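Data card: per-record layout.
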Amino acid sequence: AVRLRVREALGARESVGEVKVQGWVRSVRSQKEVLFLHINDGSSLENLQVVADPSLENRDLAFGSAVEVQGRLVKSPHRMQSMELKAETIRVVGPCDTWSFPLKVKERHSLEYIRQFPHLRCRNNTLGSLLRIRSEATAAIHSFFQDNGYVHIHTPIITSNDCEGAGELFQIETSNEARESARKTHFFNVPAFLTVSGQLHLEVMVGAFTHVFTFGPTFRAENSQSRRHLAEFYMVEAELSFTESLQDITQVMEDLFKTATNTVLSKCPRDVELFHKYIAPAQKPKNFLVIPFTVILIFFFFSFCRVSYNEAVEILKQASQTFTFKPEWGCDLQTEHEKYLVKHCGEVPVFVINYPYDLKPFYMRDNEDGPQHTVAAVDLLVPGIGELCGGSLREERLPFLEARLQRLGLTDAYQWYLDLRKFGSVPHGGFGMGFERYLQCILGVDNIKDVIPFPRFSHSCLL
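The structure for this 463-residue chain is written out next.
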């Protein structure tokens, strides 16, 4: 028998004899003359209908049980799907105790409920859709960079640098170091941390490759349990050499966003539809066609807006809305400011460029302007989320970089970084995009913890 995935079976154009489908039972309906099953193997939101003789039913054939079905794939008379499986044999591979199974048939469980079962929640339709979308979005991002000539770099997860300079790092110790902390010994001879960004390592690589990217886990020890923060999340980061314009950086950001989103919408339309119909807050249209039309209209046929930090502050100062944090030049933009700017610009993504010099890390390029001193930095703000991407031109001029590191007392720690400017330095820049925030944006999810596979919630084995 030919083994088919559920997605392949549903997409078949003609009948196929002797096929085998494996998956989990989503529903059982036994009638006097026919037995109906719906099974799913995670490859599709839609279930495959199995039609069988009632004699094939047994007590272990229940919701949640794992089965292997052999039979003939035939055209379905049902208008909701084109193909169905005429079963000749049904084998229960793994029975399921439906009474104690926390997911119940025909119940739409809330995200709050299924967070209690991190080891089982992937069997829920919502999380199944999310994981398929994550998979397609990941592949789309890799394809975008590969198709545009970028070299994929695996940057270290364990590092000794704090790229962001915020000090919100998880320090790594062996169990012996934890017990004998008084001895102040380190496994790597220096303090080691979980990475907050792969940027500095990518900057090393643009001394040999003109375009590089990384896509991996990053960690922030920010003590926040809000709906916007994660301790562990995935970051897409890229660096481009031989560029002296922020326009080059923003163009890559925009193209990446549009390409990845187009791929997700084309390959996972029903999965995205599920989120916009039932999950996205305040986005429950009667007809799902409203959502992709809006997305396509905003994200594909219009260029993203572009304002300077100076202009953004003036827009905020003139706003009729009262902000919790008063907008002032020289202060960082808060989430409420970012969302207002997106709304002000017509609910389209907005690039904010040229931030105050003192707000940004040492590696951002000095614009040498005055009296309001700025650096060539950029943030991409998107509807419903606020900041999605952050980037800048990097300071490639050795005297400027030396002077700033000296003022910050970082010269010794970043001597290797200065070396990069001594040996074949070129103008370059780059950016980083939070992957989970990207998923929040395209799916309309309010709580960022609902777009990760494993929430840190209850069971100690998964914490």
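Known properties of this structure: Confidence is low (pLDDT under 50) at residues 282-293, 457-461. The domain at 2-101 is CATH 2.40.50.140 (OB fold (Dihydrolipoamide Acetyltransferase, E2P)).

See the next section for split statistics.
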